[in-house]
């Protein structure tokens, strides 16, 4: 049922959004006369690699500098790219990956191999299902770029303060996923673009209803400053990345 749900929603969404996506791609093309699409290598279900399609929001060959985490003040982001990232428009083309069966509408966000190679044994559970365009952590850390802004080593900071909770939220989804949860998360993802605070409040209630631990619910509300914390299955904070 999940695969049928994904396919139907993705197909309808792509048809409806086709004119808008075409306009965006034309604007990106005119910006620097290069492909409007960025094909990113990601790790999917069972550790299998796939090529994820995104609208390009950065300069050409931006991934050549070896930095995988993108801060909001990253100089590689184009002027149009800042608008695209602000409203998560670069994610829309991933609907094609949903149609191809690489990912689902909802599921743990796919990571680059450099990050999945760091997974603990417990975090390997994130690869037991198809990754997705959105999930709990996509809403909680929709401001990931702002969190990493001004950091000397955004990849390390990501692994120290975002990954621990992103992974826990992903694992919680793996254990509690169903079509009702998926539908709610899609709705809350859209709401978060316009009113993140309200979306987080509804998300916290959803986590509570599903029996999440208090610490996870508190992180979800994002009322406290994020501090380094060990990833699931580890006793120490990540020191290298």
Automatic annotation (TrEMBL):
Keyword Transmembrane part of the UniProt annotation: yes
Pfam families: Bac_transf
One GO MF term attached to the UniProt entry: phosphotransferase activity, for other substituted phosphate groups
Ranges for domain Bacterial sugar transferase: 2-194
Xref: InterPro entries: Bact_transf (IPR003362)
Bilayer-crossing regions: 7-30
Keyword Transferase: yes
Keyword field: Membrane, Transferase, Transmembrane, Transmembrane helix
Recorded family membership: Belongs to the bacterial sugar transferase family.
PANTHER family: COLANIC BIOSYNTHESIS UDP-GLUCOSE LIPID CARRIER TRANSFERASE, QUINOVOSAMINEPHOSPHOTRANSFERAE-RELATED
Protein name stated in the entry: Sugar transferase involved in lipopolysaccharide synthesis
Organism expressing this protein natively: Oleiphilus messinensis
